[in-house]
Amino acid sequence: MPINCVECGKRAILKRPKNRKALCKDCFYSVFEYEIHETIMNNKLFKPGETIAIGASGGKDSTVLAHIMKTLNDRYDYGLNLVLLSIDEGISGYRDDSLETVKRNQIQYSLPLTILSYQELYGWTMDAIVKEIGMKNNCTFCGVFRRQALDRGAAMLKCDKIVTGHNADDIAETVIMNILRGDIARLGRCTSISTGSEGMISRCKPFKYTYEKEIVMYAHFKKLDYFTTECIYSPNAYRGHARTFLKDLEKIRPRAILDIITSGEDMAIKEEVRMPIQSTCQNCGYIASSELCKACIMLDGLNRGRPELSIGKNNKRKKILKMTAGKAKEAGMNGKLNGSDNTIHNTVLQDVGNMF
Question: CA–CA separation, 88 vs 182, rounded Å?
Answer without folding.
Answer: 31
